[in-house]
Amino acid sequence: MAALLNPTSRRLATAACRRISTPAAVDALVAHRNFQERCSSSLVDVSGRFSEMLDATQRYYVVGGKGGVGRTSMAAALAVKFANHGEPTLIVSTNPIRSLGDSFEQDVSDSKVVRIDGFDSLFATEIGHVKLEGGCPGVGSFINNLMGSMGLGTLADLSMLNDILSRFPPGLEEAYALSELIKSIELQGTDKFRRIVLDAPSTGHTLKLLSANNWIEKFLGIAVKGVNAASSMPIFKSSLEKWQEISSGLEKLRQQIAGVHELLVDPRSTEFIIVTIPTMMAVSESSRFHSSLKKYGAHTRRLVINQVLPPSASDCRFCASKRREQARAFSAIREDRELSGLKLIQAPLLDVEVKGVPALRFLSDSVWK
C-alpha cells in the first residue's frame, strides 16, 4: 500500500506491452478519445463535478449496480471525499456480503457505527445481516400458543400459513433495518451526519428493497384486517388485547417501511448513483437497472464507469482487445436512452487492490473531482 503514497507509482493498470500499431487498435483509440471529449482531462465529466454534490440538498446517496463492478469501493471513496471536505459522513452497507469492513480494514459489522481510523468525521456500519424473528413479529408464536391451548395443533400442521407467517418478503428485512437506522439518524439531526452514503447490494436486491413497500402495503393491510376480524370473534375475545397489540405492531411496521420508501424516492433528499464497467453485459444491466429505478420513483443523476483503461497508442494484443470492448461499451452508453442522459464519471483501472484508507483516499481523489 505504500506504493500508493509514492506519486511515482500512481499509474493506471497498463501491462508491459509490446508496441504495435494495428488498424483495429487505432480505431479503438479514436472511439475512446471521442468518448473522452465528453469528459475532462482528469477522467471526470465536467457536468458531474463533485462540487455540485457538495452544494446539493441531497443528504443520502445510494450507490448501486451489478455485482463485481466496484460498488463498495466507489461508495467508500465517495464517503471519504465528503469527509475530507469536512462533511460529517456515515457510510452504510446493506449488502449481506461484508465487504465494507474489508475495504476500510476495520470491523463495522452487526450494525455498530464505528469511526474510521484516520478521520474525525467519517463513520461506517454494516446492517446487511440484521434479521427479524418471524415474518410478522409476535404473530407466529402467539397463534401457535393459541392453537395449542384450543387443541388445534400448531402452525407446523398448517404448512402454508406457517410459511406466510415465518418469512419476510425479499427486501423487507433490509428495509426494516434501514428504517431503524434512518430513524436514529434523523433524530440526531444534520450535526451528527451531514451525508449518508448507502452501499447498496446488487441490482436485484436493491430493487427488492424499493419494492418491499408495495408488498408490505398489500400484505400488512390484509393482515391488519384479518387480525381485527379475529379479535371480534367470540372464540378469540379473551385474547383481544394481544390481537390489538399485534395489529398495532403490523401497522407500525407498515409505516416504517413506507417512510423508508418515501425518503429513498424523494429527489430533494436522495440521489441514486449507478456504478458499471465498460462491458456490453454490464451496460445492458445498468440500463435495465436505471429503467427500474425510475419505475419505483428513484432519482438517478450519475453513472460511474469503473475500470476504464487509459488511452494509449501502444498496445499488446490483450490491451487492444480490451480497448475495443470498452469502446463498444462507451458507444452503447452514448446511444442508450436510459443512460445517455446521466452525468458520466470515469474511474480508472488501478494496478493495486483498493483496500485500506490510503488506497481509498487515492481513489476518491482520482474519481470524485
UniProtKB/TrEMBL annotation:
MF terms per GO, please?
ATP binding; ATP hydrolysis activity
Q: In this protein, which residues make up the domain named ArsA/GET3 Anion-transporting ATPase-like?
A: 59-366
Name a single GO cellular component. GET complex
The cross-references to Pfam families, in alphabetical order and at most eight, read: ArsA_ATPase
One GO BP annotation is: tail-anchored membrane protein insertion into ER membrane
What is the protein name given in its UniProt record?
Answer: ArsA/GET3 Anion-transporting ATPase-like domain-containing protein
Q: Which organism is it from?
A: Panicum hallii var. hallii
